[in-house]
Input
Amino acid sequence: MANVLSHNERAAATWGSGGRDYDRISEGVSDALAHLVNRIDPQPGERFLDVATGTGWTARLLSSYGAAVTGIDIGAGVIDAAKALAPEIDFRVADAEALPLEDASFDAVTSSFGVMFVAQPEIAAVSWLVFARRADA
Output
């Protein structure tokens, strides 16, 4: 799988297999996702990276505030669903442990629940800091 580290290929197949049905899981935690976005207080024009976006629920909320959002996930099936649900958002298949992105290319990084499912969360979370410019990110 392109953009997915070899040790994460099995997880990518598992997470991607839910496709659009995964959006119902996000709906079950939508209050927490809304709380996250409210606390971040995205401003129009700010750029956000949403890591482990799934079907893009958090990305869609951020976008509704006028933010430009890139959502990444290792699951191709959920990314396909995210693209169908919000074609205006930049959704990509990518591995949270090795993001193919430019440093400081976003104002902030979100990951609602995704970091706890990353094989090496301590490596992934620290590496995400290089992508954010906002001090409170």
